[in-house]
């Protein structure tokens, strides 16, 4: 630990010296964005690692939601106060990769090699890892928590309304109508709208979101998600809203409460709500199923893309500390840790070994449908339109999309107007990113 | 106004102003200069590259409908907060000025919200108006209002206006009360003898005499709503939905820290600082006048 | 009272009671919510009367903190808030007192220049120039320290103006008397001016304490270590917990705890508070 020296402006100011908690261990900082039940698991994982290691100590700190965590780390990096490890969500990947070119990032494959720890990227699931490798196939950050949107449903409410679990978007509308008649206030909703209803809708129907292989092939990429299929899809949801079948509940996971308290019976969001739902939902039976298909666009689904986050290592610290980081990474990607994480949270297992272990342990028998996410991800060999996204400034682009979609839900704009505007504003952000990173 | 009699010392006055000036230079002028400088550059998130961009950041701002909308939002927000907080507090002050029994109790119960942080005021109202479980939202729904501030931008703006005004009522109340108490009783009594009713007395005598207080409070309330409500918005709506509650100070932060657009944020800072300094001078003319009489 | 009409008196009390209700109701609800468990707050309508979880909730908050928000005990955060508020308050008063003293009681080159330099910062809140200020504090290595938390907020045009105005009303005869006694500027300041400013200082103290306690954005940015979190910013961590359900009973409990110290200060020192407010006019 460091003793912070302080500007000697006045005698009145305290200087605080922090004594290390465990002075004989090498410590490193790990900033994450896992609140709630997930945060407890991360703390548990860290505590287990600390107990198991004689030489290393990880200090896990919760820094707010994904956006806050990432921006705090970047601000800290500019300040030279960066943590060793930071959890960054998938849309921040392009920004972090650009930083890698400038030497701010310690790529994971190199970290492991330098620490002398054997590391085999092929042990990871292809659908997960393809999002985070550079052009040469080197893994830059360690997949930690990956999920994919699924359709959560309130089984009890569906049965009461006499509706089936939907598999297509037409089914969703029908079921929502029946639910509404049965007194469900806002039958359908979703969270992380850009991710669940634009990015994954596109991948699921094998439609590119932008040019240049969704940005993988170059910085010159441009958005194309104002195409007919996406526009029709958004317009359908808007129309459902007018009919009272859809009730918007805010950005990120804000609408989660609606599903938990029964106001909403069909909810599209990350598979990682499983752990929380198991704890919070006591009054009805819930289940998850694959994303609905828009039969007017495709005959069969392609595959969905992941969300969630990876761990990036920031440079600027001492080598022994990085050796500890490598050991920590090795520890958390072990099959047992991963299987445990997967089964408790609903995130997909990121290594084949963890998936196999979960099968062996009979998890999918006791907790049916928890493999929906992983099946959805590995449904088909990923195509350029479905292997992931790599757009610069995508954090802001998501905000733009949020704003424009909110204008649709409130009836201020049509789907076409909003998506045209989102593409235009998004492209401006892409150009700005291209200009400041070339 | 100046002192006729002063002390003489070569060094001492400089030593005395030094701390204040040092802090001001380091934490006001240096950052302000930096804002001015970076507003002409394009920077990446990690601060590796820095490219001269001329007026690009400014041009982009003024061609961004979102930024122009923020101006409008800020004005609507500011004037609504000022109006709401002042009307409520004037009513309360007039009532409190009449009351004899329990006057102290009333005053105590009316002034404490001043101490509540804007962030907390926001969070509490956010809780009360949460569409799923808020009690106020529940009552609104019972009266037929389709309340959902997650979708409806006007409702979200209304939510932050109410929360911001709620916190400011106490402050205005104290000033209106002080203003009312300084009005000579004889004036009111004279009017009463002329058989002017309470309403007429208020509009023809009391209210005009309160004009200086009202004007002063208007400026203070506007400054409060424009700049001190950042926390309230950040802790609740975060500028949404669809940018409906994104006031200018919030935008500076959002562009810079969340958006990682340093140049754009700096340009906004520069514009805001110019505005603030302008408002300071308006305020100052008022303050100086008061000082001098 | 000019006249005594029962209807008017009734109306007066009605208006006041309505106002008190409007101001107190939100906090009442916060108090009520903080005494329930999560089940009671899962759906509308939520209870309007206290539950039985007050003790459990508050002990959990004060001693252990929230696992949902990183587990920093509220007690620790309140301690930090207190330190921050005190340092800001004392610092502001100290540097404003002496700079106002210099500007009023001395003639020296650049006097008005200094005056204007302080003056333009009158209404320039840190939020307006947040990014570059953060950069500066970073460059000075003051992140994650009480110094970084407080010093940038210490410059205060408001307090300087207040003291300047007050000093201008102090009769010149006192200075002359001091001169006759051969008392220098430093003795005059400590023996005469400071005791005379006692009420002003006390009144200002309340206003500035509230200002310091209620800081939000600055601590949010400057502290990355949990040991330094303050309570007002800490609540944001709970509300925007991202993927987890907001734990309203804890959030409201924290809100209540966070507002207790400044509210007590205002209520207990009402007279001084009113004076401070009216004097500083901002």
Defining traits:
heterotrimer, A: 438 residues, alpha/beta, 5-stranded mixed sheet, 4-stranded mixed sheet, 19 helices, 9 strands, 45% helix, globular, disordered N terminus, C: 282 residues, mainly alpha, 14 helices
Task: Explain how this protein is built.
The complex is a heterotrimer of chains A (438), B (293) and C (282). Chain A has 19 helices and 9 strands. By secondary structure, chain A is an alpha/beta fold. The two termini of chain A are 37 Å apart. Chain B is an all-alpha fold and 293 residues long. Chain B has 13 helices and 2 strands. Chain B has helices at residues 12-38, 56-63, 65-98, 103-111, 118-128, 135-142, 153-181, 185-193, 198-209, 211-228, 230-235, 248-258, 262-292, and strands at 41-43, 50-52. In chain B, strands 1-2 form a two-stranded antiparallel sheet. Chain B is globular. In chain B, 53% of the residues are buried. Chain C contains 14 helices and no strands. Chain C has helices spanning 6-33, 54-64, 74-105, 111-119, 130-139, 146-150, 157-169, 172-180, 185-196, 198-213, 217-222, 231-239, 248-268, 270-280. Chain C starts with 5 loop residues before the first helix and ends with a helix. Chains B and C meet through helix 1, helix 3, helix 4, helix 5 and helix 6 of B and helix 1, helix 3, helix 4, helix 5 and helix 7 of C.
- Return Rg of chain C in Å: 24 Å
The pLDDT mean of chain B sits at: 87
- Total beta strands of chain C: 0
- Strand/helix succession of chain C: HHHHHHHHHHHHHH
Summarize the entry for a quick read.
With 438 residues, chain A is α/β, with parallel strands linked by helices.
